[in-house]
Amino acid sequence: MNAWATRPIIGNEGINLMTEPFFYIIVNPVAGSGNGAKTWQQIQPIFEQRHLDYQVKVSQYAGHTIELAKQIGNFATHDQAVLIVVGGDGTLNQALTGLRATKTPLMPLAYVPTGSGNDFARGTDINQDPLKALEQILSATQPVSIDVGQYSETTHHHAGYFVNNIGIGFDAAVVASTNHSKAKQWLNRVHLGNLAYGFNVLKVLFKRKPFALTVNVDGQQIMIPDAFLVTTTNHPYFGGGVKILPAASPTDGKLDLIVVEHTNLITFVFLAIQLLRGQHTKYAKVHHFQSKHIQLMTNSLEYGQMDGEEMGTRAFALDFKVSQHPFWYIPENK
Ligand SMILES: Nc1ncnc2c1ncn2[C@@H]1O[C@H](COP(=O)(O)OP(=O)(O)OP(=O)(O)O)[C@@H](O)[C@H]1O
């Protein structure tokens, strides 16, 4: 039996399962280096041809999706509504964040992946082909419950949600270094954005130092003096398709934490090969935790990333919990 078969389906209040919902749509035109805009042009005729009720809003600037989702959630006049996000993982994160702060925090979300990484789609059995993903949405008659991560930063009085993962250290330094590299822009233009990540993985590997990490899981405190990669994840994927924690599931009501200790180059290369084989978590330098509640603390200033977006640099004190959100689609492996 697969994970979806055991997952209770949310009977969303106000959703009459027999009628087509009203579709609110947010498009991030710049997601995936312009793929968001192209995909919307491709799929809009489908909404017209099928006489679907919809309203589209286009994100005009970075962070705009949060405001658009708040407007939709607060002023939705259709009680049987679904919010479709056409964008990357960052746009989906913003839509969830905005929606959760409204009068209808549990309006079902749907996702048409058009980003460069699309890790949420990989982790939740959404096809990465936007047309196929749209079919998964339009053929659904009820939402499924998917885990989303919830975090609060005790030192910054800041809280929010994530759909994929929050990373401290290595992966976050790679995101920051890549975003600020001049090469990324022109490599993106020629659809070689992943090459920019490759260069920066090597750069960060040689430059970053290990740091002391305190982990609290299920009342147990663990000190890791030389942490290097620290990622709390909702599902197996990060970094655009890297299966960092094969055992993680977006339907088990738990979050997974991987901590990789700093080590020499030969061991890193060995672990990278094991990662490709899905065997890396067996080794002593790699720690794997799974829980409903995880706390992390660093004393040194470290980079952070959330769903592929930079969080900045600081000493982190993070409290993670898991929440559920209704998603409107039929998972591929169901
Ligand atoms: N009109 C806009 N102009 C500039 N930036 C925008 C605009 N609309 C949204 N953004 C920003 O685009 C950024 C990237 O979006 P997103 O993460 O969805 O795409 P991506 O990075 O290509 O995909 P992925 O995260 O899957 O790799 C987000 O930080 C978002 O705030």
From TrEMBL:
Family statement: Belongs to the diacylglycerol/lipid kinase family.
Ribosomal protein recorded as keyword: no
PROSITE patterns: DAGK (PS50146)
GO MF annotation list: ATP binding; kinase activity
Needed cofactors: Mg(2+)
NCBIfam families cross-referenced by the UniProt entry: YegS/Rv2252/BmrU family lipid kinase (TIGR00147)
Protein name, as recorded: Diacylglycerol kinase
Keywords, sorted A to Z: ATP-binding, Kinase, Lipid biosynthesis, Lipid metabolism, Nucleotide-binding, Phospholipid biosynthesis, Phospholipid metabolism, Transferase
Pfam hit, one: YegS_C
InterPro entries: ATP-NAD_kinase_N, Diacylglycerol/lipid_kinase, Diacylglycerol_kinase_cat_dom, Lipid_Phosphate_FormReg, NAD/diacylglycerol_kinase_sf, YegS/DAGK_C
Domain of life from the UniProt record: Bacteria
Originating organism: Lacticaseibacillus saniviri JCM 17471 = DSM 24301
Biological process, per Gene Ontology: phospholipid biosynthetic process
Entry annotated with the keyword Lipid metabolism: yes
Domain DAGKc span(s) in chain numbering: 18-154
